[in-house]
Specification:
Length: 450
């Protein structure tokens, strides 16, 4: 019940480099082996479209990033590994979220503001060349996270604002429609090195200073040769601080090896020799993965199958939530609209909509309604139509929804805490009530949303 869900995505616009490996791929593979955590890793190809109108490149990058993750040891059986665009619920949820997102908040998003500022400096229209996709980036990202009710999202510092916006959007939605979403937290690992690139700035595609993760051995050697160093000659002691050669080595070597390398710097190792040692150390680490990577790239159908299997797992979670969300916002079947028009205005609870199969039909339902006293109530109606729980009146539908959410999330265990919100029904059998509430909890995917 209390497994924590961790989710992260990589945008599919480029070929993975060493910085992606150290900053994102390696830590996520390590984290996926933790017990008690359910990990979601995905290829953010819908995000890729925002920056990259090149179809071949989107496809190629998706393939390469997926292969890199698998070659680095990600086990698709243990985690939910999928491609964003296979989860149709994500764009659908994006629209629901769009309708509760303040435009003013999006105006303040760093990426959008940076584009507007650049235009301002060159005297262009503020929105020149800015797509609505770039503007909406944070809402799509919020949908990625909220559709799985992820608790933790490991990201780089540059993404923290997006997580704040996600929380803001989730709060707003919960406020309007009931408690559907967990408020996710950004996880920024300060131990995860930001790897310097060839020029000493952060290794990043946008600085064009990267070293390919799975290039050939010769390419690796050539790229390492291009790392900028100072002009000290062999024999002169060299500073490790600020040296990209040293920092990249450190990100791959064990502490003892790093100690020896530090010593060699103090003793004046030449840059050529230092780069040779870096190359050998990197290649030792990367060669086995590179072999797996190449085998995977040669067999794209295998990757495709893994992603489709992952998408099925992901949609098993996304789809029932989306059913509830559609119901919550009023995108509903019309057949039962009559009863609602005469007072029962909402039945946003689990089980009231999806499917209608035998198992569903045997489930109790929460019904929300408003009485003539103007207050908001809910009751839990058993499979045979008996009232099992009856709330007292609330000031707002939201308060009622919160009590429902807590009962859904915790089952019978929530009864004691919610006692003040419930009326006493002496004719109800407590044991039967407890059993039904627990059943409801166990079939509820947003179980811990409260
Ligand atoms: N915006 C992220 C990046 O550029 C990629 C991303 C898209 C993401 N959706 C996400 C990361 C959801 C975490 C969670 O790095």
């Amino acid at each position: 019940m209390s497994t924590s869900r961790v989710l992260t995505g990589i945008t599919t616009t480029g070929t993975p480099h060493l910085g992606n490996y150290v900053g994102a791929i390696r830590p996520s593979v390590a984290a996926s082996n933790n017990a008690g955590v359910q990990s979601f890793y995905f290829l953010a190809d819908l995000h890729g479209l925002i920056k990259c109108p090149e179809p071949q490149r989107i496809q190629r990058s998706t393939l390469e990033i997926a292969a890199s993750w698998l070659a680095a040891g990600l086990d698709p059986e243990r985690v939910v590994f999928y491609r964003q665009s296979d989860i149709v619920e994500i764009p659908e949820l994006t629209w629901l979220l769009t309708c509760v997102t303040g435009k003013g908040m999006l105006n303040r998003a760093h990426a959008y503001k940076a584009a507007v500022d650049r235009n301002g400096q060159t005297g262009l229209d503020p929105d020149a060349d800015v797509t609505a996709g770039l503007f909406m980036y944070p809402v799509l990202m919020a949908a990625d996270i909220l559709i799985f009710n992820a608790h933790k999202v490991p990201v780089g510092r540059d993404q923290v604002q997006h997580l704040e916006m996600t929380r803001d959007i989730a709060l707003r939605f919960n406020h309007l429609y009931g408690d559907h979403f967990v408020l996710p937290e950004a996880v920024i690992d300060d131990d995860v090195a930001t790897l310097p690139g060839l020029d000493g700035r952060k290794m990043s595609k946008s600085y064009d200073n990267t070293i390919a993760l799975f290039g050939s051995r010769a390419q690796l050697q050539k790229e390492i040769a291009a790392i900028v160093t100072d002009s000290r000659s062999p024999g002169e002691p060299k500073a490790t601080e600020g040296s990209a050669v040293f920092q990249i080595y450190q990100a791959f070597a064990a502490p003892a090896e790093t100690g020896e390398f530090r010593q060699a710097f103090a003793e004046g190792i030449g840059w050529g020799a230092a780069k040779e040692r870096l190359f050998e150390r990197l290649d030792q680490e990367l060669a086995p993965m590179r072999a797996r990577y190449e085998a995977l790239l040669a067999d794209p159908a295998r990757i495709e199958a893994a992603l489709l299997a992952g998408a099925r797992k992901a949609r098993n979670i996304a789809e029932p939530l989306m059913v509830r969300l559609r119901e919550a916002v009023g995108l509903r079947r019309l057949a039962d609209a009559k009863g609602r028009a005469s007072g029962t205005w909402s039945a946003a609870a689990t089980g009231s909509v999806a499917g209608g199969g035998a198992a569903k039909a045997a489930m109790p339902l929460f019904k929300q309604y408003r009485e003539r006293d103007g207050r908001f109530y809910f009751k839990l109606v058993g499979p045979q139509g008996r009232t099992l729980l009856q709330s007292r009146g609330f000031e707002s539908p939201n308060e009622a929804a919160q009590v429902i959410a807590s009962l859904q999330a915790r089952g019978a265990a929530a009864l004691a805490a919610q006692q003040a919100s419930l009326q006493d029904l002496p004719e109800v059998n407590d044991a039967e009530l407890a059993r039904l509430l627990d059943r409801l909890r166990d079939t509820d995917d947003t179980g811990d949303a409260a």
